[in-house]
Amino acid sequence: MFSYLEKNGIDNFVGVPDSTLKNFIKEGLLKKKILITTREDEAIGIATGMTLCKSNSLIFMQNAGFANSLSTITSLIQLYKIPVIFLIGWRGFLQNDAPEHIKIGRIQPNLLKDIELENRIVSEKTWKKNCKWALSKIKNNSTVVLIIKRETVE
Amino acid sequence: MNRKEAVEIICKQIQNEIIVSANGFISRDLFSTLEKDSNFYMIGSMGLASSIGLGVALKKPKKRIFVFDGDGNILMNLGSLVTIGSLQPKNLVHIIFDNSIHESTGGQPTNSNHIDISEIAKVSNFKVYSIKTKKSLEQILQKIKKPKSPILIKIQISKNNIKSPRVKIIPEKIKSRFISAIDCS
Description:
The complex is a heterodimer of chains A (154) and B (185).
Chain A: H1 2-7, E1 12-15, H2 22-30, E2 34-36, H3 40-52, E3 57-62, H4 63-68, H5 70-78, E4 85-90, H6 99-114, E5 118-121, H7 127-139, E6 144-149
Parallel strand pairs in A: 1-2, 1-3, 3-4, 4-6, 5-6
Helix pairs in contact in A: 3-5
Chain B: H1 3-14, E1 18-21, H2 25-33, E2 39-41, H3 49-59, E3 65-70, H4 71-75, H5 79-87, E4 92-98, E5 101-102, E6 108-109, H6 117-123, E7 127-131, H7 134-143, E8 151-156, H8 171-184
Parallel strand pairs in B: 1-2, 1-3, 3-4, 4-8, 7-8
Antiparallel strand pairs in B: 5-6
Helix pairs in contact in B: 1-2, 1-7
């Protein structure tokens, strides 16, 4: 998925690591194409600057970081209509995930709906189709979210 | 020196260079001093001017990028100093107008007078200039033409009694004209 996005126009991968996304991030780190930031909103700021230079960006984070980013999404990304792809790891998807993830995992679908971000879930079967969808959306100046479910508990 | 006076001195020297300015009175002072397409007025998302500036600096390595920031703003995103300091963009000039208050929200204290932001920037591998007078500001701006690392200029400013008018351009327009301006400048 990393290579596919890179080959199809995403120049920058900026964000905060999440174990659900570790394979994606590992591939990017090997290619020296990942920029790790201290917080998720910082990543959104950097990606915004890059997008203003006509360089397409993906911002990755855990859903805990998505909750951290709500104000930045409304008052920067949506206010200025900055087209970026968010890649969010869905912790708390399983009922038996660690306790700190349960609440955010449960309210995540409603949060995405309320903040008015179009989103698709990425799986083994759907990743390519949904990456294509996301790439076409940012070409048309929209911001979208791709989600990877956490389906195992370690 | 107050913030408006400092903004005027800087704008006079840097003319048409790219500026990303923080929300609140900083953007308003810039708007009323040197309105131009290559100003990105960040009207929301407090704290992120230095991050947006970093993104631009990384993608436009041949251009100098100025960030107009405040003490309240940078204290909300101190991690930004770590990220900029690690990446070492030589074309980023981070200016902090430090009045130790959140002036735009009524003058509440920020705590920047209890610690030294300059020292945090120094250990984050910025070249740091701490300035109190108009004359030294003018001199430093002349001196930083060929930097070897990101620069942080902390300017101690006094409280301002005159409010500059709000930025009157809609955000989408601020964005689109900034994109065009930095693309061909």
